[in-house]
Structures
1.
Amino acid sequence: MTTLHSDAFVFLGATGDLANKQIFPALQGLIRDEGFNLPIIGVAKAGWNLDQLKARAKESLEQHGGINQPAFEKLLSLLRYVDGDYGDAGTFAQLRTELGNAERPLHYLAIPPSLFELVAEGLAASGCSKNARVVVEKPFGRDLASAQELGQTLHKYFAEENIFRIDHYLGKEPVQNILYTRFANPIFEPIWNRDHIRSIQITMAEDFGVQDRGKFYDEVGALLDVVQNHMMQVVANLTMDPPTGEDHDAVRDRKAELMRAIRPLGQNDVVRGQYKGYRSVSGVAPGSLVETFVAIKVQIESWRWAGVPIYVRAGKMLPVTSTEALIEFKRPPRETFGEIVPASSAHMRIRMSPDMTIGLGVRVKTPGERMVGRDVELEMHRRAADDMPPYERLLGDASKGNSELFSRQDLIESQWRIVDPIMGNVTPLYPYEPGTWGPEEAHQLIANDGPWVDPKIVEDDPCAKA
Ligand code: BG6
């Protein structure tokens, strides 16, 4: 595998939403922080010219993170634009001309997956795909079969090691920090198993609805939008075995083993909900049965994890915006002091947003004659969540050929295998009121191991960035 730096950055879909919200801010950040200095070529079918793309870059940065004048000016000086239809060989010929002497371009396909084959073919026929890397975004298929098909399509034109599949959760500092904390501190590994851990729960709560993404969202729902991908990556970081070796596949290999050990979900492992009012969002089908909330029970069939339930819930229009994992340790074998201790008393709490916190929950004695205590949480670590925005980190890594933080075809297929049996409205859909923690049935799902512990938000917390 070549680890040479890419020598041109091409983004197809240059006038689209992803470019606007993520790619321009990431590029400005890479120029500012890493001295990124490559030709940057936008491609789109919009009838635009370079000046229009430059104006879009300015707007994008003004709205998403702000302009850093020197980096912005540098970005403008590097920017090129090719306008044309993706079905037209002339578009790719022009791209090849703009690439000039570049021999190892990176192509970011910020376009719908339905166009991947056409574009990959155009890149190949024009010589633009030679020694190239390609970056693609979710959704990677709509089910296992279509994910395999998409994989085969990409593999026709690009070797697996040159395909960079973005799951932006992997670019998040707090998600990386899970692995770091687990494997940089030898005290955790001996207790990180079924002997000491009773259950794990993960909550990804958002206090907003589907906003202007009704059409997109109504084709996916919460399970495919965030659970099958982002949350499964978090589950993997929390439960995978320690990596051996240092190459880019060391972590991904352990993750792949873990994902393969997850039992495919059955209908009793899932509760789906839809917030009241969702069906009137623009783009949503009037009688839509798509879920905006989902709770699942995951089971890992391995010696380390057999019998440890992992609950994951994710939803829109919940009371707060926060992502948090709670690892609940086993209780003492007997209550020495006859107290009624809350189930989640001994825990490790890993908050990924809005701030990054790692806390250890323990019981301490209340001063006095009686042997009674209270729960306290020792904060091991706490700071703002994202120093470097995920897209900046990921695009920087892709251009260096560092694939560790990207998903892999086998991982993607395992993720689909887990959710495939419960797709297609095979489970009931329960309504819930906006601003609540989803339908009552989600509480029943966790009843034997619960309750759910809701992330708490402290108003005016300086570490918490909304
Ligand atoms: C995206 C989903 O992948 O992740 C969105 O499509 C979701 O629905 C978002 O809101 C959450 O990511 P973040 O980084 O904003 O927490």
Note: The pocket of 6-O-phosphono-beta-D-glucopyranose is lined by residues 206, 225-226, 353 (CB under 6 Å).
2.
Amino acid sequence: MAEIEFSIDSLSKSEKYQELITQVPALLDPSVDWVANSANLSAALKEVFGWLWVGFYRKVSEERLQLGPFQGPVACTFIHKGKGVCGTVWEEEKALIVPNVDDFPGHIVCSSKSKSEIVLPVYKDSQFWGVLDADSENLNEFSLVDLENLKSLIQSFEKHL
Ligand code: SME
């Protein structure tokens, strides 16, 4: 079993990402399905950054995403293509940083505590597979630092899809 040491409280955000990028490939197990790996990646991100919510939504039909493994408060089970931040990322196949969720038309509120959000597409064999979604209780939590580093972590995850 992979064991990861995350005693990195004093590090900057970029340094935390560097630790994760080093350690996450060992956490992801090529012998298991996406459920275990997405659960562990969600847990690692939650533990390191303490965000309100972090997890996956997976495409289950041409119309909707279904909630996958996550860490945080309960969340809506389905999101339709084009709806909310996650459904928009699917439709546009482009990551989105939302500095203030109240300013995003059609944002789907899963927790009233969520103030900002980042959502990135995840691909399997170059086809859209789902999204990684993270929510913060702080406004303006997410930046290009998160975008670039989460992309890198997602690339490690995609190898095992
Ligand atoms: N806010 C998201 C919904 C998912 S939750 O944040 C966990 C959206 O607008 O798509």
Note: The pocket of methionine sulfoxide is lined by residues 53, 75, 79, 84-86, 107-108, 110, 114, 117, 133, 135 (CB under 6 Å).
